[in-house]
Amino acid sequence: MRRVFLLWLSAFLPALLWAHPEWKEASCIGVIDEKNTFSLTVKFDVPSFLVGQLPKDAPIKELDALMFSPGRLAASVEPGRKSFLAGLRLEADGQPVAFTLETFPSAEQILAQSARQGEADRYPVMMNAKLTAAIPAGTRKLVLRFPDALGTVFTNLRKGMEFQTVMAVSKNEPGEFRIGDDPSPAPRENRTAVTLLGDGFGHVIPEGWDHCLFMLAMFLGAASLRQALGRSLVFTVGHSITLSAVALGWIGNPGPWIEPFIALTIGLGGLMAFRGTATNRQMLVIPAAFGLVHGLGFAAAVSDRLKDWDNGSIVRILVGFNVGVELAQMAVIFTSAGLLWLALRAGLPENKLRRALCLAVACVGFAVMAWRAADILGLT
After folding, report:
1. pTM of this structure
2. Cis peptide leading into 206, omega within 30 of 0?
3. Strands 153-159 and 26-32
């Protein structure tokens, strides 16, 4: 172990001794004026950039060779300027925008700044590059990427007194800056049937994992695939009633407390399927009742959209949404049936497998109910 430590120390100690003794992150100030001219001032460690190293990684030997080898710094500035401009990326609402590089440090300026800092503090040499770009009128979002050799760039971007964002932009995650208000959403009545179906389907798959668990419990407690699909349809009728009632303003928005009750229905659904004592009539009434609860959950999930739904289009919207939900529920049931068939083909006992899955659904449902209630009460 001692030899391993000495070998590690001998390998990394020289790098620690010769690495950049003091370094600073790059910074940037961007201003968009009333004419949509984007002025960008980037302050960065010029020598480390010219040797193609992150400021914290640039070896002092390599920096000295750049600065004090005759003619090397002067020969590096122009390629560095081109590399700087090529590594900068700007998009306005997804469309690329070209920069103009107005100023970039010259070899004489770099040497003069290093000399002013003194022998002990000759690095880093922090200097400015200035750029401009013309931003299209009405732009709402800018995406900005800096050259990789700058590392993380702390950026302050503002447009008048309306929009200002401060962000650390890394080479792996370009900065996204909001500089305009989003346009008003398209009227709900203009949405297509496919979009509405997609909304409903998406609220179950992949967003509604708890909804999928309830469908799994309904399937496991059914005697046949046809019976499971019937329960799914009854469940859809139930949640359609309460979702419509909230959307039409007949009842108020349920708020966050509906979430623990949804988890409770999952737990009870799994428990009843595990016990297997409910009659077929009861297993039609119960999904309808539980569907009423889940409909309130849907209403809470889409509460931000309800204000955009007018009475003239609300029926079409709710029908499309609920048909999408029902299709997703059918997909869960058919998938569950297929997986169960494969398990039985593998020789697993059906009764034990069904009971184990029902118990698992029940445990998850009750656990999620407790967690959601504790979260609302501020106990987590």
Report:
1. 0.46
2. yes
3. parallel
